[in-house]
Design goal:
By secondary structure, the chain is an alpha+beta fold. The chain has 5 helices and 4 strands, in the order αααααββββ.
Length: 143
Amino acid sequence: MRFPVSKLRELRIWELILFCEATVWLVLAHALIALVPYSRIHRQIKGGRSNERHAVMAKTRDGVDDYVNAILRGGRYLPLSTKCLCRALAGKWMLGIRGIRSDMVIGVKTNSFAAHAWLTCGGVVVIGGGRAMQEYTTLGGRP
């Protein structure tokens, strides 16, 4: 998909900066998924530190909306496939460098060969919540 440059002009400067940062995280996540075995990615998902003082701010989606919107916007306009796993990883990293705690969840369907990843902050799904998540059994025991 070609990126409509006119859309860039409509963004405020801080939205443009977040968009650029999000595209970098998405490209890195895409490369990681393509080049690194899942077992190492899973360790990355489970690990990580965060600054708990920001965890209260992230109890609702409102505290992370700008970052989530940047990830989703970047995913729409990059000329590579940024599926749910890529977006959730990029979102986790983008929030993590700001000290916002998030949990990445990967689920699989038991009756078919399908998987889905989503990102939560304070128990609220912020990335990847569009599908019927109750159909997925989570890996690692996380809700």
